[in-house]
Task: inverse folding
């Protein structure tokens, strides 16, 4: 028995060693790959269980994606080793940012490979994988998409030349229509269709508020769209249009450059022309005013004797004669003022000149100029308006040669209406200036 103890002990030791070797030899990390190609997602390889496969599939379902697991199998000897938590956290980035790619798990760790279109996608992937507690090899690369491009330059007036590359003729036609809607002509220079390009940033649908401003306000304009950036250059006459264009560009949700500048030379010329135009207009107005006064004086001097003979044959006093003459005058004339102002119109000034001619004929007659308004607006404003108007009428009579001692100017505002201020016609009649002869 003593002799058998040694071989039996060795045999037991050998069995224990074989069991340990066997267990550690087949305890491997799961070996699988999740791949994306042309919007098709597939899981291949060996995982620990059917439940693990189902869990991975459900993570894709959360994002509305069907994962093909037909080439995935299971083995109880396969272990997760903490990789699943990393994969689950990375799936949202993989689904949303990768044009194509793969997530591979082996004994060596996790390898991420694939293509994204922006630096921000790389940053997202690094942010998610940065906290991983196992080796992760990130082989993601950036390949920017081939976007449509165009270069539009002002040719003459509202005619523009178009160069560029589009994925389809309809995209070019869409630009042409937007210019037509802005009363401009866009002329394509040559065939420029490249099916490999795309309008992923939907720039053609965002120019509806930009092109009308570009056409109407930018001189020597240039609109360039390249590599996803829109650039507008040219000259404008007013800084407000630079600000307005900037506001519209900021709404596009794309990168842009607003290189429009003020056309200082054109602005100076425009201001000079406007100043000259105002000066000419003022001279014309002054000339017309003088001509109106001369015409009125001539008409009165010719007609006053006839008016007095035909209308005042039965009157005896100067006051009565003046009243009659004023009555005849106001059958065709009114003392008219500019709307809501105290200044006389040219027509109103002509009436005042005619009144002056009558008063010069009877130098002993004194008058009151009475101003009235309707009840619209503030009471105090109406009072000030009526007083201001009669004051200006008095000054016009004085300039025409009537002594200020013969003229009394009183504004009554809305206090003495002829009719109730209940209708438009009544209010119109209540807005008036009367000449009242003082005395019998």
Result:
């Amino acid at each position: 028995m003593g002799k058998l103890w040694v071989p039996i002990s060795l045999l037991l030791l050998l069995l224990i060693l074989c069991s340990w070797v066997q267990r550690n030899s087949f305890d491997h990390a799961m070996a699988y790959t999740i791949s994306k190609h042309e919007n098709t997602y597939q899981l291949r390889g060996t995982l620990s269980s059917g439940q693990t496969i189902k869990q991975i599939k459900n993570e894709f379902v959360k994002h509305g994606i069907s994962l093909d697991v037909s080439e995935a199998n299971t083995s109880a000897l396969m272990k997760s080793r903490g990789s699943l938590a990393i994969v689950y956290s990375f799936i949202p980035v993989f689904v949303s940012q990768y044009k194509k790619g793969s997530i591979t798990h082996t004994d060596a760790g996790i390898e991420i490979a694939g293509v994204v279109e922006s630096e921000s996608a790389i940053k997202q992937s690094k942010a998610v994988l940065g906290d991983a507690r196992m080796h992760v090899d990130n082989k993601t690369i950036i390949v920017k998409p081939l976007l449509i491009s165009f270069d539009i330059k002002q040719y003459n007036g509202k005619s523009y030349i178009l160069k560029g590359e589009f994925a389809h003729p309809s995209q070019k036609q869409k630009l042409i229509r937007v210019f037509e809607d802005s009363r401009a002509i866009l002329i394509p220079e040559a065939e420029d269709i490249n099916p490999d390009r795309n309008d992923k940033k939907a720039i053609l649908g965002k120019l509806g508020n930009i092109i009308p401003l570009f056409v109407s306000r930018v001189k020597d304009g240039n609109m360039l769209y390249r590599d996803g950036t829109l650039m507008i250059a040219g000259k404008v006459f007013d800084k407000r249009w630079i600000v307005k264009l900037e506001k519209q560009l900021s709404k596009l949700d794309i990168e842009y450059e607003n290189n429009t500048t003020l056309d200082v030379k054109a602005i100076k010329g425009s201001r000079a022309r406007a100043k000259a135009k105002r000066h000419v207009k003022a001279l014309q107005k002054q000339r017309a005013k003088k001509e109106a006064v001369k015409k009125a004086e001539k008409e009165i001097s010719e007609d006053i004797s006839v008016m007095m003979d035909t209308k005042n044959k039965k009157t005896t006093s100067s006051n009565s004669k003046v009243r009659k003459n004023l009555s005849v005058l106001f059958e065709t004339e009114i003392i008219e003022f500019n709307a809501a102002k105290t200044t006389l119109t040219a027509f109103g000034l002509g009436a005042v000149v005619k009144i002056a001619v009558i008063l010069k004929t009877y130098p002993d007659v004194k008058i009151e100029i009475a101003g009235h308004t309707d009840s619209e607006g503030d009471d105090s404003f109406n009072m000030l308006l009526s007083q201001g108007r009669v004051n200006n009428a008095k000054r016009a009579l004085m300039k025409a040669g009537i002594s200020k001692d013969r003229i009394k100017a009183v504004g009554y505002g809305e206090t003495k209406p002829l009719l109730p201020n209940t209708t438009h016609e009544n209010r119109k009649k209540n807005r008036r200036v009367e000449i009242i002869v003082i005395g019998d």
Confidence is low (pLDDT under 50) at residues 20-25, 310-316.
